[in-house]
């Protein structure tokens, strides 16, 4: 987390990832690291825009005699207090500290172990070139990966940072952890749908337009019908093209500045990308006699993973209600620019598992450090608090309705 916030305004990152920690304890830790920028030559901002905060953070207030709370509004304070109450109940029931209760439950750990076993069981047949694994291996990989990689990048798998860090490396068919931290954790989560701050607004800018702040281009007229091929190659670009862009330009989608890493870390990153490219796309041409078969085993699995990612992510922020809106209250902004959808019954459970909880995007954006296995239980708390304070809660009844809203958004932004 400290590295993610280096040389940038990390207020949003810090507050959203420490909503339940004792404030006095947090202040004591921060005080140890406080420096005077006028006395340090290495204090600088990667982005000059960070001189002015996007959100208004109220002054610290003593909400209770026992603890000085974070600088948040009444809406955010009540939201955090009620969710903390749920976690305190979980902690008492399991006999663990509150922070431990916010991570994977024992049942969740068993579920992840089963998912890992199912995916690994397909690998021998995949390397032998059995055709059924063209679908089975990437699908089982995706379900394992999205339920580990994403939570790990938000420090939501476990209290141990090493487990979270290891979890991010399960995304080899998906994205580099270094690039994902810049795109998702630093950029998107802190500033969702904020022009020139959220890099997710500017993917494939030549072909897709997701905000009116992006100049209309001729190919945008067709985006409501040309989204599928872009969805198919999306994670390939994230995995191999975006790292090149980040290292060459020093920014991700011209929105997030590259953290200043030592040369050794950059070399490790490049070596890792080469290794992952060989694992995903090269070995097939040395194993199979047919070049056609080698190409299919190289291209189709990553394409399926990409489609799974897009189905799980694109409807979460790209709808009419969530685009080109904002609020200077960080927590209200997270709600207004996100979109949750949840079907009833077994289909809802399967959607939740398939998307790794990304379908409950509002709850995740409010509390990214909570493992997503808790999100269905905190959803009623979030909805009730939003209703009390008059905060619109964008939602759909299920995946089909959410996808329809995404397509309508694409049609709306396809015209000048």
Features:
2 domains, globular, two-stranded antiparallel sheet, 416 residues, mainly alpha, two-stranded parallel sheet, 18 helices
Distance from first to last alpha carbon: 40 Å
Major beta-sheet overview: 2 strands, antiparallel
H and E string: HHHHHHHHHHEEHHHHEHHHEH
User: Number of folding domains?
Assistant: 2
Class by alpha and beta content: mainly alpha
- With strands numbered from the N-terminus, the spatial order across the biggest sheet is 1-2
Nearest-integer average pLDDT: 92
Spans of at least 5 consecutive residues with low confidence: 62-68
Shape: globular
What multimeric state do the chains show?
single chain
- Number of separate strands: 4
Beta-strand residue percentage: under 5%
Number of helices: 18
Rg over CA atoms, rounded to whole Å, is 22 Å
Helix content: 40-55%
Describe the structure.
This protein is mainly alpha-helical and 416 residues long. The chain folds into two domains: 11-101, no CATH class; 106-416, no CATH class. Helix content is 54%, strand content 2%. The strands form two sheets. The protein has a two-stranded antiparallel sheet with strand order 1-2.
Structure summary:
This protein has 416 residues and is mainly alpha-helical. The chain has two domains: 11-101, no CATH class; 106-416, no CATH class. Helix content is 54%, strand content 2%.
């Amino acid at each position: 987390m400290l590295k993610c916030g280096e040389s940038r305004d990390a207020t949003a990152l810090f507050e959203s990832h420490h909503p339940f920690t004792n404030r006095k304890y947090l202040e004591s830790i921060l005080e140890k690291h406080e420096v005077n920028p006028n006395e340090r030559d290495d204090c600088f901002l990667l982005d000059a825009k960070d001189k002015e905060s996007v959100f208004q953070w109220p002054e610290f207030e003593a909400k209770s005699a026992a603890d000085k709370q974070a600088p948040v509004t009444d809406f955010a304070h009540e939201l955090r207090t009620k969710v903390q109450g749920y976690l305190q109940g979980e902690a008492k029931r399991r006999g663990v500290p509150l922070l431990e209760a916010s991570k994977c439950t024992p049942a969740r750990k068993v579920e992840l172990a089963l998912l890992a076993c199912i995916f690994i069981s397909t690998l021998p047949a995949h390397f032998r070139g059995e055709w059924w694994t063209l679908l089975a291996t990437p699908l089982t990989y995706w379900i394992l990966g999205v339920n580990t990689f994403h939570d790990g990048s938000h420090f939501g798998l476990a209290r141990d940072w090493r487990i979270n860090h290891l979890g991010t490396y399960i995304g080899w068919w998906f994205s580099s952890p270094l690039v994902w931290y810049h795109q998702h954790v630093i950029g998107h989560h802190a500033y969702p749908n904020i022009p020139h701050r959220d890099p997710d607004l500017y993917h494939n800018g030549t072909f897709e337009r997701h905000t009116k702040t992006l100049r209309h281009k001729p190919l945008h007229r067709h985006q409501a019908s040309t989204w599928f091929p872009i969805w198919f190659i999306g994670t390939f670009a994230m995995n191999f093209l975006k790292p090149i862009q980040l290292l060459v330009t020093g920014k991700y989608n011209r929105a997030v500045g590259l953290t200043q890493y030592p040369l050794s870390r950059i070399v490790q990153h490049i070596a890792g990308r080469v290794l992952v490219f060989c694992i995903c796309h090269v070995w097939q041409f040395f194993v199979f006699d047919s070049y056609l078969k080698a190409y299919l085993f190289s291209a189709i699995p990553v394409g399926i993973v990409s489609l799974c990612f897009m189905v799980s992510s694109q409807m979460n922020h790209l709808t009419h209600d969530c685009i080109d809106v904002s609020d200077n209250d960080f927590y209200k902004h997270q709600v207004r620019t996100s979109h949750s959808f949840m079907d009833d019954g077994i289909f809802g459970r399967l959607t939740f598992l398939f998307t790794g909880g990304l379908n409950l995007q509002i709850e995740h954006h409010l509390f990214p450090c909570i493992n997503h296995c808790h999100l269905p239980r905190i959803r009623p708390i979030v909805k009730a608090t939003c209703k009390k304070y008059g905060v619109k809660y964008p939602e759909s009844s299920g995946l089909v309705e959410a996808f329809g809203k995404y397509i309508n958004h694409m049609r709306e932004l396809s015209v000048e």
